[in-house]
């Protein structure tokens, strides 16, 4: 029944119902006609049916109304359902579109996070993924166009950010290079440049620029900046030569720079190559050599120079292990070695001066065998006669000799220290040490002696002892030669002998100074005696014995000449000759002095007596003058004058004139001399002699 009201069947139903009714009516009428009673009954039944139909119709209408009311809510619900389904469809479409956009937004957020964390290379990869994978999926959206337009700017930001990191890296590497160099020179295991500094900014920047097609630009920039840093590293501190710390800072910085570059060479995927690195090293090497040469030349501390040498050696070894050529640095070490030897000599000059200042210059005296052996342990000396003597014994040399000998050995050891590990042959080391030792003795020590000899406080006997000491030092050079051969391992053949070349030239300058000082000091001492001269120039008769000051002077000379025993013969002879000449000259000056106006014959005879005493040591030059006046042998003088074999060759006319004038003045004081014919004849002869002497003097001047 309810189905009738579904759709459009209601009208048809009603029409069919009416048709059916009419059909039934006809059937009823026919039946009624046939069955009237039955018809009547049927009518009655029909009327009942009609009422029932009406009732049914009412019910149907009521049901229809109710159905209409129910259908209206259903329609509303259907419309709501359609709207819901439309919303659901929109939601599904939105979800689908959001699913396409979310990877874009997620990737963009990831990009921002990577850039914030300075992970630029992953950020660049993310940007590529965003550009080529996700953005094409949302190409219809406006925000995708904005993102796409912003991509070049993002790439440029990544380049700039990675370059900023690289600049920070370059600044840090400049600061950390000395530490890297220090670690490298110490050869610390398990520590490399990468352990001390993060190289990732370099790799990131290189990758980024490579991906962006700007690798060549990056390589050019990196190399240019590193070359600038190399020039800064190669500038030494102004006071580098003062302490080893300055040299360490300089060397460590250089090593650090090239260790870093070597690391980049091996890990930088061609960022630097061997050609570039060799170019930078060759540029740096000349600057390094010049800087070390200049600053080491200012150094005057031998200990510091040894530290410098060891530092340079470690520098060479480290860089050579990294493949750099260091031959020029080894050549520099040879130059520094020569300066080191000069510095050593200056240092030993101070040592020698301290020894010389503290020395008393008295022969060593020992009172026991232990003391005797102790001296022999410090200086090679053998004297059979001295060994056989009983104690106390006295060595011919002073403590100066073993002290200097030991210091020379110390100098040799110090020279050898610098030559260690320089790849020198035994012969080269041996020659260097011998030359340096020879210079030490012949120049440095001799110079100290020459300086010492000029001190007024140095006594004559001390000068004599020093000359004796130098003789023993010269003889000991043969032992020094042997000592050098032993410590260097070089053959002993072909080297100078201590005696042949040593004594003849090693202390020649000092000996010449000493000889002059002996002569000068001896003259000054003689002057002290000569100042006591008290001649009576008008003495009538000589005293019959030498003057007291001459006697004292001769006694002094005899004692001095005894101390010449151990002197070289030529030195002793020269000193004796000089002393006698000085005495002779002084006595002659006494007679010729302007202060002495008159001299009697008795005074001349006294001077002759004094001269005879002096002849025990040497014949004074003025003896010929005195002999001429004592014998009055003027004919011989005039006859032989100018001849090589003249008896009075050393008597000059002017000297004789002065002395004759003084004799003549003294004769004037004798009142009775004019009464004697002999005196008158002598006076006449004197005038004649004076006249002839003046003629000779005039001729000599012409």
From TrEMBL:
A GO cellular component entry from the record: exocyst
Domain Exocyst complex component EXOC6/Sec15 N-terminal: 16-185
BP GO annotations: Golgi to plasma membrane transport; intracellular protein transport; vesicle tethering involved in exocytosis
InterPro entries with a match to the protein in the record: EXOC6/Sec15 (IPR007225), EXOC6/Sec15_C (IPR046361), EXOC6/Sec15_C_dom1 (IPR042045), EXOC6_Sec15_N (IPR048359), EXOC6PINT-1/Sec15/Tip20_C_dom2 (IPR042044)
Residues covered by the Exocyst complex subunit EXOC6/Sec15 C-terminal domain: 328-662
UniProt keyword annotations, A-Z: Coiled coil, Exocytosis, Transport
Domain of life assignment: Eukaryota
Task of the protein: Component of the exocyst complex involved in the docking of exocytic vesicles with fusion sites on the plasma membrane.
Similarity field: Belongs to the SEC15 family.
Protein name stated in the entry: Exocyst complex component
């Amino acid at each position: 029944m309810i189905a009738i009201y579904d759709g459009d069947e209601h009208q048809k139903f009603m029409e069919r119902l009416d048709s059916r009714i009419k059909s039934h009516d006809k059937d009823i009428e026919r039946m009624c006609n046939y069955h009237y009673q039955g018809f009547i009954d049927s009518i009655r039944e029909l009327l009942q049916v009609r009422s029932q139909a009406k009732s049914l119709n009412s019910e149907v209408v009521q049901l229809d109304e109710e159905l209409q009311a129910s259908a209206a809510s259903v329609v509303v619900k259907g419309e709501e359902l359609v709207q819901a389904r439309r919303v659901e469809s929109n939601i599904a479409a939105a979800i689908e579109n959001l699913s396409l956009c979310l990877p874009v937004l997620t990737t963009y957020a990831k990009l921002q996070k990577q850039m914030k964390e300075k992970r630029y290379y992953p950020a660049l990869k993310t940007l590529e993924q965003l550009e080529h994978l996700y953005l094409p999926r949302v190409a219809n959206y406006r925000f995708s166009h904005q993102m796409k337009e912003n991509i070049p700017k993002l790439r440029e930001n990544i380049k700039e950010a990675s370059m900023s990191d690289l600049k920070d890296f370059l600044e840090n590497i400049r600061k950390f290079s000395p530490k890297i160099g220090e670690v490298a020179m110490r050869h610390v295991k398990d520590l490399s440049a990468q352990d001390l500094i993060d190289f990732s900014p370099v790799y990131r920047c290189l990758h980024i620029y490579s991906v962006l097609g700007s690798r060549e630009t990056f390589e050019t920039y990196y190399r240019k900046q590193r070359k600038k840093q190399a020039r800064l590293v190669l500038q030494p501190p102004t006071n580098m030569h003062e302490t080893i710390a300055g040299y360490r800072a300089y060397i460590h910085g250089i090593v650090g720079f090239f260790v870093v570059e070597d690391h980049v060479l091996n890990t930088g995927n061609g960022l630097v190559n061997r050609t570039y690195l060799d170019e930078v090293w060759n540029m740096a090497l000349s600057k390094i050599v010049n800087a070390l040469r200049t600053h080491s030349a200012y150094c005057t501390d031998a200990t510091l120079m040894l530290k410098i040498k060891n530092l340079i050696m470690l520098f060479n070894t480290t860089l050579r292990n990294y493949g750099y050529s260091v031959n020029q640095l080894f050549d520099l070490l040879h130059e520094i070695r020569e300066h080191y030897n000069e510095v050593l000599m200056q240092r030993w000059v101070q040592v020698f001066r301290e020894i010389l200042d503290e020395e008393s210059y008295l022969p060593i005296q020992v009172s026991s065998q232990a003391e005797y052996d102790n001296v022999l342990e410090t200086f090679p000396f053998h004297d059979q006669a001295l060994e056989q003597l009983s104690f106390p014994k006295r060595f011919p040399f002073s403590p100066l000799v073993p002290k200097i000998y030991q210091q020379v050995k110390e100098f040799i050891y110090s020279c050898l220290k610098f030559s260690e590990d320089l790849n020198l042959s035994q012969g080269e080391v041996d020659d260097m040490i011998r030359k340096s030792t020879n210079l030490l003795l012949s120049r440095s020590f001799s110079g100290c002696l020459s300086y010492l000899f000029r001190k007024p406080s140095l006594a004559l006997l001390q000068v004599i002892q020093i000359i004796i000491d130098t003789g023993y030092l010269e003889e000991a050079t043969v032992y020094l030669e042997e000592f050098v051969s032993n410590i260097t391992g070089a053959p002993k053949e072909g080297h100078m002998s201590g005696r042949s070349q040593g004594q003849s030239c090693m202390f020649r300058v000092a000996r010449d100074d000493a000889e002059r000082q002996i002569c000068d000091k001896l003259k000054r001492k003689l002057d002290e005696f000569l100042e006591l001269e008290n001649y009576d120039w008008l003495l009538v008769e000589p005293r019959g014995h030498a003057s007291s000051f001459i006697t004292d002077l001769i006694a002094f000379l005899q004692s001095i000449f005894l101390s010449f025993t151990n002197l070289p013969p030529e030195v002793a002879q020269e000193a004796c000759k000089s002393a006698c000449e000085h005495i002779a000259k002084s006595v002659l000056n006494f007679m010729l002095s302007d202060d002495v106006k008159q001299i009697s014959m008795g005074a001349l005879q006294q001077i002759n007596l004094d001269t005879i005493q002096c002849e025990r040591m040497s014949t004074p030059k003025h003896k010929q003058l005195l002999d001429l006046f004592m014998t009055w042998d003027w004919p011989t003088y005039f006859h032989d004058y100018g001849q090589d074999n003249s008896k009075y060759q050393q008597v000059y006319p002017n000297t004789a004139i002065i002395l004759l004038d003084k004799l003549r003045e003294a004769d004037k004081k004798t009142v009775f001399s004019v009464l004697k014919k002999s005196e008158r004849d002598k006076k006449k002869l004197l005038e004649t002699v004076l006249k002839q002497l003046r003629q000779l003097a005039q001729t000599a001047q012409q």
